[in-house]
Design brief:
two-stranded antiparallel ribbon; 19% strand; 216 residues; 5 helices; 4-stranded antiparallel β-sheet; alpha+beta; 10 strands; single chain; 51% helix
Length: 216
Amino acid sequence: MNNNNNRNNIIKNFNNSSLIQYISKWEGDNFFVFKGLYLFGPTTFKSTLLTFISISVPIVLILVFSSSYIIKELNVSLIIIEIFLYILTIFFLIKATISDPGILRRFPISNNNSNNFYTFNGRKKILINQLGYLQLYKYCSTCNIIRPNRSTHCGDCNNCVERFDHHCPWIGNCAGKRNYKFFYFFICLLNILTVLILIFSIFHIWKISAVYIFLF
C-alpha cells in the first residue's frame, strides 16, 4: 500500500514539462499519446483493430440472424447477457492495450561495476555487494540496467518488463506486472463469450434444420 501511495505521489508531483522531456528521450519502441496518459505498443492500433473486428463480427451476426430465434424460443435475457459480456470484453481489451505492462525505466549503471560482469549460459550477469553479501543479478545489455527477478527484455517493444509473461500480438502490447489482471479478465470473458456464441449458433442451426425437416 505504501509503495502505491509513493508511486501516486511521484506521478502527481511529476509536472507536465518533465513528463514531455522524459517522453522525448524514450528509447523503447513503445510510444505515448495524450501527453503520456496512455502507452501503446509498436503494433497496438493494427493489432487491437484486428482483435476488435474478430470479436465484433460474430456478435453482430448473432444479433442480426439468431437473436429472434433466441428471444422467441428461449429468453431475451440471454441476448442482454451476451451484449453485456461483449462490452466487458472490449473494455478489458482496451485496458490491457493502453496500460503500462511494467516497463522498467532505463537507469544506466555506473562504469565502476564494469569489472563485475559475468556470463552464465550465454546470459550476462553482474556481481553486486548488497549489505555485505555478494549476489548475482541479471543484466540487460540493451537497456543497460540491472533486471529484477522475473523480468525479461521484450524484443518486440525493446524494453525490459517486470514480471514479463509474454508479448501478445492480439493486443500489440506485453502482458506484465501492471496490466496482467486486465489481460486475464479479457481472456476469461472472451472464452465465456465464445462459448455463448457457439451455443447460440448451434441452437440457430438446429432450429433451421428442424424447420426444413418439417417442410420437406
